[in-house]
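Bug: token stream looks shifted between consecutive jobs. Job 1:
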Amino acid sequence: SELRGRTAVGALLSLNGDDLLVRDDGTFSATVTLKEGDNVFTFQGTDVAQNKAEVVRKLTLDTRPPALQLQ
């Protein structure tokens, strides 16, 4: 799966501790492997003025079909 977003131009950005490439227009993308259940992604960024921010997002993968009961 691919996570995409936008941050401040010139910012440094990491995802779960791994550096991400921020393009000249501030966009970024990362390919991730989702596991069944909750997947937590922590983005940490530092802009050119050295301001820091952290954003945490959770994605849930549920590939199990719902139980169906016929009467």
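Job 2, same session, no restart:
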Amino acid sequence: YFSKKEYEKAKEVYEKILKSNPKNWEVYGNLGVILKKLNKKEEALKCYLKAIELNPKYAPAYLNLGNFFKE
């Protein structure tokens, strides 16, 4: 859905995955990207931070976080 720019659908899929696997840092990172695209910046920030909390070595979350504050 992301590649088709169907961000609402992608958001629903990621949220569904998190219900069954709430410690999946990659999904939190991806969900943050989706939320940013949907202009839900506070929620996106929380997802980036959650991804880092779950896996402090997950570099894409730091990159997304840096881009978040850069804009």
